[in-house]
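FW: tagging you since you asked about this chain on Friday. Here's the raw sequence from the shared folder, copied in full. Didn't touch anything.
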Amino acid sequence: MTPASYDAHPHPHPHAHAHAHAPNGHGDHGDHDDQSEILDLDAEVLAEHIASITAWLPVKADPRRIVDLGCGTGAGTLALLKRFPQAEVTAVDTSTSHLNRLRHKAEAAGLADRVRTVQADLDGDWPNLGTPELVWASASMHHMADPDRTLRQVHDTLAPDGLFAVVELASFPRFLPEGAPADRPGLEERCHAAIDHHHSEHLPHRGADWGPKLAAAGFTVEGERTITVNLGPPHTEAVGRYALSSLTRMRGGIAEDLAPEDLAALDRLLDTESPHSIARRDDLTVRTERTVWAARRS
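HL: got it, structure written out here
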């Protein structure tokens, strides 16, 4: 599972944003390495919420074969391996560096024999993924050039009666508590408005209702659930780094759209040497929502 933080890069790919989980980017590029830290932080900070989603999945029997589409550095893969201890996961991503990182994590956890990695562009030829009983796609479907095609591919790949879990974020996470003192009141809301505008131009499927799309592809939607994330103080050091990394990526996508005063205020939040740094705030929070759709192959 990945947050919308990764969708804040200033130069989106024409088919897939620079999101590390996007399995349809064409080739590895340096930005993938930059994303590794925030992917790992997302997994650490939101581990409990990821686990709650995997626990909710309406599987009829524990799957033995799972595919993670757009696996990034492995947050979903490792959560699924923990949730289903008899399963093997095929992890698919465009980034070799992220797949290598995932393999190292799996080895450290003693799970390497249960993970197979596949580098693939899912907007191109569909790789051989076997016949899984469960397919998981977290924060990756909205990056597809033709998501309806991808949904049909997943439908045809799944075993009969298999389950497809689509996890998407409602919006970029918020970190400043509502009504908190600030030298630029409303700064975070204006930043969100700018990134939403950025996404509307480059990621038209972000925020889509995947229920009708799943039904049109031949699935039966068996459940939909929204997980609300609201992590308040006191927080761990990882939460501070997560906020700092997320807002740094956001800045890259919206700097040209912000008023000079707002950009200066944002930079003060990102200055790790400043007492105003977002990572040092005692009132730092993490607020966002994730929605999961569970759809069965009819």
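FW: The beta strands are 65-69, 88-93, 115-119, 134-138, 163-169, 219-231, 286-297.
HL: agreed, and The chain has nine helices and seven strands.
FW: great, closing this out.
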